[in-house]
Amino acid sequence: MAGNxxxxxxxxxxxxxxxxxxxxxxxxxxxxxLFRSLLIPASEVENxxxxxxIKAVILTGSESAGRHVAxxxxxxxxxxxxxxEGQILLLFSKMLTLINAAK
Length: 103
Hints:
CATH class: Alpha Beta
Distance between the termini: 9 Å
Helix content: 25-40%
Strand content: 15-25%
Number of strands: 5
CATH architecture: 3-Layer(aba) Sandwich
Shape: globular
CATH topology: Aldehyde Dehydrogenase, Chain A, domain 1
Number of helices: 4
Strand order of the largest sheet: 2-1-5-3-4
CATH superfamily: Aldehyde Dehydrogenase, Chain A, domain 1
Structural class: alpha/beta
Radius of gyration: 13 Å
């Protein structure tokens, strides 16, 4: 992952997916805490986005989630990339995809 760390806040109705992705990173020998799954309610996402160590936000989610995340990203002057339906991925330094990170 070239030194880039990531945290994932997956949809609340399918947290097992996020936990499984974290386990893949751990089992593959990546450094501890390079990738972490956040099992938090949506109400805490803005606080995470606002943290000074978060540099960018990638959203794959509903229109409603997109509006809330885009508002928080703008408020905290964070880079934002969005799609539709899925999970929110927050990155510490550079945006990257889980597919490339897992290789």
